[in-house]
Design the sequence.
């Protein structure tokens, strides 16, 4: 093996290394999404606590990715498609960290909601919405590993459904609050939870856009579905889909 | 001038160029914050529309900064403090873009709130909170230009006040909703507005952390004030300060 080959393969290992970190981080975030939803539905304070504590590992990976990508840039001066890999890893790690934060917030609100009378049907509705985002993230990560721009495009389209689910919940919670003022505090928290899930969907969308960027060299055109085309109606939330 | 000097000064111009873009982006975001708050208080639909439309320019600058920073990395292979400048510009541009999005969302909700009975005192409270975030951003940008890590640290501390203001509003809006169910829809929107401003503060904090990183080479210790030390009380919002 000559000197040159040696350098090239160390470089490849660096690039594989940062990508392995992103996949690892994605796995932790997937688990956090599933667990915060389960904690809410089963009113399981231990699991909620576990999600809150687990966010530290996600933040730690972000830090590690920040250091690794800075090191790769400084040491290897990547260009063209290698630079795209490094830049996309940096962006995707930020999206994953935000999704992890939202899961942590949901887990905190789950702890608070434990002390209140449950709102009928809310746990199931939140679970379905969370499940959809979790599957979107799973597919986005698979698309990343496979460099599958088509699958990534499907993920982006699916965010529309999450926005619709959010809008339905927005109306439902408003109705519950109006029916009985004793529901107001619990519904406020459920509302923020639904909004957080909707935002998770936006970040999965941004992540899927990076998959397209890294696979094709181009960002998708700005035709991302946004549910804010009806900004003047007052029954659905006018800014769903906007993160 | 020899060849070498020529290269160095073109490099310096590149670094100055990306930093000028960040300062320009920061200026637009400052204006967006001030205007969305004014639109809400004066019930000025034209101004709200202007903020919504103006977000395109902010997004455009983000894109330009993304392209410029990628170009500088590919062309100049920056290391040490120059790499810190480029990386911090990338991160700060993301924070500014998010703040711009929140201003746009507030402007959208301002349009919706126009069609509802005003909630007494809410506009003034939101204005004071927005004003604080606007001043924090102004100081963070000044700290960036001056490489003033101390001023950046003061900005980070001030986010605590924004969190407190948010918590006070959270309680106030809950009370309004319980007093009269006809207030619920308007209060929900005001609530999200307050939450958006609180999140703006979190992003200004993240931006100030980058100022410290670029000025000193180190990120501040994780002692960022967060108002979530009381996760079990149900009267304030348990997750204020968490973005």
Sequence:
């Amino acid at each position: 093996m000559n000197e040159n080959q040696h350098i090239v393969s160390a470089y490849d290992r660096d690039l594989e290394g940062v990508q392995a970190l992103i996949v690892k981080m994605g796995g932790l975030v997937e688990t956090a999404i599933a667990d915060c939803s389960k904690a809410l539905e089963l009113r399981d304070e231990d699991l909620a606590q576990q999600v809150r504590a687990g966010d530290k590992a996600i933040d730690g990976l972000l830090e590690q990715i920040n250091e690794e990508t800075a090191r790769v840039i400084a040491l290897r001066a990547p260009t063209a498609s290698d630079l795209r890999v490094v830049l996309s890893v940096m962006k995707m790690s930020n999206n994953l960290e935000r999704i992890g934060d939202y899961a942590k917030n949901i887990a905190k609100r789950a702890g608070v909601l434990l002390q209140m009378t449950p709102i009928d049907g809310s746990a199931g509705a939140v679970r379905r919405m969370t499940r959809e985002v979790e599957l979107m993230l799973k597919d986005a990560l698979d698309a990343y590993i496979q460099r599958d721009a088509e699958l990534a495009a499907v993920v982006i389209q699916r965010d529309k459904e999450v926005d619709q689910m959010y809008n339905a919940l927005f109306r439902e919670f408003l109705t519950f609050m109006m029916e009985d003022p004793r529901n107001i505090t619990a519904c406020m928290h459920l509302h923020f939870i639904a909004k957080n899930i909707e935002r998770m969907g936006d970040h999965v969308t941004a992540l899927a856009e990076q998959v397209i960027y890294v696979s094709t060299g181009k960002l998708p055109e700005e035709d991302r579905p946004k549910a804010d085309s009806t900004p003047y109606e007052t029954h659905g939330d006018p800014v769903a889909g906007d993160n």
Confidence is low (pLDDT under 50) at residues 224-234 of chain A. Chain A has six helices and no strands. Residues 3-216 of chain A form a domain with the Methane Monooxygenase Hydroxylase; Chain G, domain 1 fold (CATH 1.20.58.220).
